[in-house]
Specification:
Number of helices of chain A: 3
Number of helices of chain B: 6
Strand order of the largest sheet of chain A: 3-4-5-6
Largest interface: A-B, 75 and 91 residues
Order of helices and strands of chain B: EHHEEHEHHH
Distance between the termini of chain A: 16 Å
Largest sheet of chain B: 3 strands, mixed
Largest sheet of chain A: 4 strands, antiparallel
Strand order of the largest sheet of chain B: 2-3-4
Number of strands of chain A: 8
Distance between the termini of chain B: 38 Å
Helix content of chain A: 25-40%
Strand content of chain A: 35-45%
Oligomer: heterodimer
Chain lengths: 132, 185
């Protein structure tokens, strides 16, 4: 799975996710990547999110929207919201991660599995590429 | 005002410790290319939506990632692709699933959002919609790589092995590195 969240000069957020899904999938199985609110979500008032991981769990938690909802209803900061949501995924037995970005340009890269590849670049800081 | 982007190339794929320096360099180069492509759009005043699709297009075209070319195989031995996109300004959204012949699924997800009255289209219907917009269908072989074919073979062998050993008394298999990499490629 690959994904991207972006913040433009006008202060607008967007999110996208694209995937081949799961090896040996059957019966038209679909994971979280194409499900708005699970694998992808964006709202200028809260954040943009793209997820990657064990899709069944990400759908059940409604991961991307869950992060935004914490910000919207409780004013939870982005990183804390992302961490709380990934903890819910872990509690159910799922793993994976998210990248998230808010309208101030704050980012979260929360994950609970090894091998997450991610990178970011902003107008006021150099590019960072990280592989765990 | 700050602008920029964050990308990911999947989780639970090859762990760094199990990766050769050459392979790690390939991944870093690919991530950097996608990052710079998206950033260039933003730097030139483009929209967040345009930046997202520009960055994802490069990863879809790169066989290192499980998206577009180089995607994992389904049980029928073909690649089956999904994508979605959302615009934070309008909360418009578009999604596609179970595609077999669309080179860049994220572009079609964007077009579902911008050029249809729907949010999600799947399978043959989504591909018919793509054709109505002038998309060229590509053969499924375009997405297929030997590395992913080998992963499918291993997954199916493992599945057969498990089926042979299955008894009601056995606990569920733990999630280990092997199953994780098979799941997500």
């Amino acid at each position: 799975t690959v994904g991207c969240v972006a913040l433009d000069r006008a202060g607008n957020l967007a999110a996208g996710t694209s995937t081949g899904g799961m090896t040996n999938k059957k019966y038209g199985r679909v994971g979280d990547a194409p499900i708005i609110g699970a694998g992808t979500y964006a709202n200028n008032a809260t954040c943009a999110v793209s997820a990657t991981g064990w899709g069944e769990f990400f759908i059940r938690v409604g991961v991307a929207r869950d992060i935004a909802a914490q910000m919207e209803y409780r004013g939870t900061p982005l990183r804390a919201a992302a961490a709380a949501t990934i903890a819910k995924v872990a509690q159910l037995g799922g793993d994976g991660g998210v990248i998230a970005l808010d309208a101030q340009g704050d980012i979260a890269m929360e994950f609970n599995s090894p091998g997450m590849y991610r990178a970011f670049r902003f107008s006021d800081r150099p590019a960072v590429i990280a592989i765990y | 005002k700050r602008y920029g982007l964050v990308i990911h190339g999947g989780a639970g794929v090859i762990e760094r410790a199990a990766m050769s320096p050459e392979r790690e360099a390939e991944y870093r180069t690919a991530l950097n290319q996608a990052l710079q492509a998206g950033y260039a759009v933003l730097d030139q005043g483009g929209s967040a939506l345009e930046a997202v699709t520009a960055a994802i297009n490069l990863m879809e075209d790169n066989p290192l990632f499980n998206a577009g070319k180089g995607a994992v195989f389904n049980a029928d031995g073909i690649c089956e692709l999904d994508a979605s996109v959302m615009d934070g300004r309008t909360q418009a959204a578009g999604a596609v699933a179970a595609l077999h012949h669309i080179k860049n699924p994220i572009n079609l997800a964007r077009d579902v959002m911008l050029k249809s009255e729907h949010v999600m289209l799947v399978g043959d219907g989504a591909e018919k919609f793509a054709q109505s917009l002038g998309y060229q269908l590509v053969p499924n072989a375009y997405f297929q790589t030997d590395w992913r074919r080998e992963q499918l073979k291993k997954a199916q062998e493992q599945e057969k092995e498990k089926a042979g050993k299955k008894t009601a008394a056995l606990p569920a298999a733990p999630v280990d590195y092997f199953t994780r990499t098979l799941r997500w490629g």
